[in-house]
Amino acid sequence: MTIPFEISKKTVITEIKNCEINCKTFGWEISDIDELSQTFTVKLTSAFDQEIYILEFKFDDYPSIPYFIEFIDPVTNEKATRHAYPKSTDSFFHPNLAICHQCSRKSYTILHTNDWSMEGWRKQAGDLTNLNAILNTIYIRISNKDLYGGRMDKKI
Questions:
Q1: Domain spanning 5-147: which CATH class is it, in words?
Q2: How many angstroms separate the most distant Cα atoms in the chain?
Q3: 3-state class of 26 per DSSP?
Q4: What is the per-residue pLDDT across 66-87, written as a single tens digit (0 to 9) for each?
Q5: What do you get for the CA distance between the two ends of the chain, in Å?
């Protein structure tokens, strides 16, 4: 189902507004919406090692389908590099450079092409069905020494 841009944008604006408390509490920085590319970025800083992670959220057809979430290298601005991604002790930050969860459209396109369907993705995604929940989960993971192993291309 194709969602009109204005509906997707309105949904995203509401979700960004719902992040205000966590932005102030944890220092999350959310960019303005780029209407042409239908994206925005979020900068998170690990409380564990102060590494900066930048995520791009593409929201075309959202909320019918999940955000396409991509990490951007904070030094080179390249997308989808090992230096852009955090390493986790499980498969959430997948070595194939994707968030392995139903909340991320990229996971459907490169990790679970045959066994996941984006139709009804919200029922599959548990609590990770909005921006604040997704960011909170990522922030907790990059700030917890038991879940986080630094950048994918570094050893801690």
A1: alpha beta
A2: 44
A3: helix
A4: 999 999 999 999 999 999 999 9
A5: 44
